[in-house]
Design goal:
This protein is of the alpha+beta class. The protein has one domain: START domain (Alpha-D-Glucose-1,6-Bisphosphate, Chain A, domain 4), CATH 3.30.530.20. It contains 4 helices and 7 strands; from the N terminus they run E-H-H-E-E-E-E-E-E-H-H. It has helices at residues 18-25, 31-34, 116-124, 129-152; strands at 7-14, 38-44, 53-60, 63-75, 79-84, 90-98, 101-109. A hairpin with a 2-residue loop joins strand 3 and strand 4. The N and C termini lie far apart (42 Å). The relative contact order is 0.25.
Length: 153
C-alpha cells in the first residue's frame, strides 16, 4: 500500500432535514448527476444497505475506468460509507442536524493508503497525488453544491 493524504473532507449546509438528504445521498445511481468523476453507478441486488455492492464507471476527460464498491457503514439518516475495492479508499457522507437543516460532510479516507496499482496510475495517468487529491477536493465541492441544489429545489 502507498501512503496518500489520509483524509480529504468538504462540507456544506442545506435547508432540509437529515431524512430528506439521506434519501438523496444513499441513491447511488444519482451520484452521476452530482459528481464530476462518476459517469454511472450500477447497484447490485436490492435496496442500498450495509453490504450492498456496486459497479461505478468513472471518467476524467477521455479516460474511463470502472471501480467496485461495497457499503461498509449505513447508519440511517446519519452516516453512509462505501469502500472502493480497487484502491481501498472509503468515501462517506455524514449528516449532522443543524438549526437551519443539515450539514453534509463528504469524506475520502485512505486509512491504509492505496493499492500499488492505484498509486502507479495516479502518478503516471492522473499527474501525481497532490494534483489528483486537489481535483478530488474540487469534485467534492461540486458534488455538495449539486446535492444542495437538488435537496433545496
Amino acid at each position: 500500500m502507498s501512503n496518500v493524504e489520509a483524509l480529504i473532507e468538504e462540507s456544506i449546509e442545506v435547508n432540509a432535514e437529515p431524512a430528506t438528504v439521506w434519501a438523496l445521498v444513499t441513491d447511488l445511481p444519482r451520484m452521476a448527476k452530482w459528481s464530476p468523476q462518476v459517469a454511472k453507478t450500477i447497484v447490485r441486488g436490492g435496496p442500498v444497505g450495509l453490504g450492498t455492492t456496486a459497479i461505478n464507471i468513472n471518467r476524467r476527460g477521455p479516460l474511463v475506468w470502472p471501480t467496485r464498491s461495497k457499503v461498509v457503514r449505513f447508519d440511517q439518516d446519519r452516516e453512509f460509507a462505501f469502500r472502493i475495492k480497487d484502491n481501498t479508499t472509503i468515501w462517506s457522507f455524514t449528516l449532522e442536524p443543524t438549526a437551519g437543516g443539515t450539514r453534509i460532510v463528504q469524506r475520502r479516507e485512505a486509512p491504509d493508503g492505496v493499492t500499488k496499482i492505484s498509486d502507479v496510475l495516479t502518478k503516471r495517468v492522473f499527474g501525481g497525488h497532490d494534483g489528483f487529491q486537489a481535483e478530488l477536493r474540487d469534485g467534492m465541492k461540486q458534488t455538495l453544491k449539486r446535492i444542495k441544489a437538488d435537496v433545496e429545489a
